[in-house]
Structure formats: C-alpha cells, structure tokens
Write a structure and sequence with these properties.
about 260 residues; alpha+beta; seven-stranded mixed β-sheet; 7 strands; about 25% strand; globular; CorA-like transporter domain-containing protein; CorA-like_dom
Length: about 260
Amino acid sequence: MWPSSETRYDVRAASAAESLEHGLEKVFSNSNELFEIQVAEIASKGIEEDCLQSDCQLDEHLSTYHVPSTPAARTEDGPVKKEKASFFLLDPAYGWSHLPITKAGAIKLFSALRAFPELYQYVSAFSNKTFPRDEGFAGFDSHTTIGDDGIWTSFESCYLLKYIDRRDGIKQGANPWAIRHALIYQKVDRDDSRTSHLLARLPTAVIKLLGEGLRSSGTESVFVQDWSHLHTTSFSSIKDNLRQFINYLDQEITDLASQ
C-alpha cells in the first residue's frame, strides 16, 4: 500500500520519479528549464488560482493547501461531502515535449496526492520524442480503498485520453491535424473530503469549460459536486475535431483517387 495521509515524502513516488528520469527519454524539466503548473483550489471560501513556476512555490502551495487533516465522520449511505477540490494542470511546451515540472517537484506533488503506483506508467507517456509516436497504450486503471469498517475511503482512476487537435504554424498543404493524448488522474478521498486531479495536456475545449465552471460556481460547480463530470466532459470534447479529421482524410483520399 502507498503511504498514509501523514506521509509528506513518498518513497514509492521518489523511486518511480528516479526511474522515469533515467529512462531513455526525458520526462521532467531540468532545474533551468520551464516549470509551470496551473493550479485551482476550491473550498468553502471560494476558488484560489495560481501559476506555480518553481519548486519553492510548489512546496509552499502544498504546505498551505494539502496539510493532512483529521478524517471526517463517514456514513455508508448518502452522497460524499466534497468540501475541497484541487486541480493541477501541466501543459507541455509543444506536442512532443516533456512535462514542465522537475523531478523534485514531481516527487512533492505525487507524495501530496498520495497517488497510486499505476499513475507513473501514464506519466511516462509525456516524454521528449523525436517523432509523433503513439504510446501504444490507452488503458484505464482504478483502485478503491476500503476502511476497517467496510466503507470505502477513497477511489482513484487514471487513463490517457486520445484526441484530435489542430496543429499550429503548419505550412500550406500540410496535414493540419495531430493525434494527442491527455493524462487524467483523479482521486476522491472520502476521509479528507477532497477530490484531487492531476491533468496533463487537456483538450483546449475542456480547459475552457473547466475554468469557466470553477470560476463561476466555486464549490457549487458540477466539476466539484459530481466527480464524473470531468470525464464525461473530456469524452464529449473529442467528437467535433474527430469529425473534421475524418472529413479531411476522406477528402484527401478522394483527391488521390481522382489523380
């Protein structure tokens, strides 16, 4: 099992980050490269947004918002009371780039989230590449933790969402579309009354809807009240570009056949 809520430094996270750093392809930024994490913290007092640009800022943020708390009383029936929600968004500088966070920062973030080990496989998909290689997997992993009283205390899920996106700055006549993948990790912690999210390279439409929903409604936002809404929004977002991409391929094939 991964660490309890009292653990600030996760040995498993450190080991996984070390393995990712020494892989064949670069996953994390060096200390002198881009460090950028968009953060939204939602609680009863409202929404707090920030852009963290260093390990020190991340450490200060986690110390402020992710201090282990005393477990709240739980009941087997009825909705889970979600008093807090956290969203950490990582957006690589370009399509084949690594994540804009250092190894030290990743260890701090993974430890604070107390993320299950399956997350690290998906993180490895965001490494520097020399060509637009498909990662070869788009699976789904989840884990539910049951307390001594037989009531679930938390559940986690993680997957890569494949989607079609427009390419920027392309030459005339070049393919305007690219296949991307987004990392979506979520943890619903019943004891801590918190839903946490680690998101990387989300589709633009999802980022817009998520930001608008959180800013306008805070804790009443459907993204906070309904843990499944982020997933349904993400799945729904891929249809428009996918339809246009298929139309583009159909036109290209038609043009080739007529030559």
